[in-house]
From TrEMBL:
Belongs to the YkuD family. The active site is at H111 (proton donor/acceptor), C127 (nucleophile). This is L,D-TPase catalytic domain-containing protein. CDD domains: YkuD_like.
Length: 152
């Protein structure tokens, strides 16, 4: 039950950034790109792990500690004007937007997918993809301000 040192350092570094959020969360997420896994922790205890898809190249999915800044049910895929909830929507049923520097939570995120066969692979353009039922579970357990650490 050890806390990842990078996350703790990131939490302290992000305190000023997160001052506009209610509080630092007692939960956090670690995405390991080398294993294509996402683990949800609460009170420094591993609660649940999931297989995910990450970027096709190492650079596609950014490394670092990023707060959740946006939560959207049935997000629209604006690039191709596909409505939320549509079976062909590549964002699936939930969007958990991350504040990667220079973005606003609408560029990088954790989201569902209409292609569950991509899970476990390096297949995305930078986001973290999950199965729809699994991202729904995660969506119900995170809030704005939850920290997400993405590592190699």
């Amino acid at each position: 039950m050890r806390v990842r040192s990078g996350l703790l350092a990131g939490m302290f570094a992000l305190t000023a950034t997160l001052s506009s959020y209610p509080t630092l969360s007692d939960s956090y997420i670690v995405v390991d790109k080398s294993e294509n896994s996402l683990t949800y922790y609460q009170h420094n205890v591993k609660v649940k792990s999931f297989s995910v898809a990450t970027g096709r190249t190492v650079q596609d999915t950014p490394n670092g500690v990023f707060p959740v800044v946006m939560l959207v049910k049935n997000p629209w895929y604006l690039k191709k004007n596909i409505p939320g909830g549509a079976p062909e929507n590549p964002l699936g049923v939930r969007w958990i937007g991350l504040e990667v520097p220079g973005t606003d939570g609408s560029i990088y995120g954790i989201h569902g997918t209409n292609d569950p066969s991509s899970i476990g692979k390096h297949a995305s353009s930078g986001c973290v993809r999950m199965k729809n039922e699994e991202v729904t579970w995660l969506y119900e357990h995170v809030h704005v301000g939850t920290l997400v650490e993405i590592v190699e």
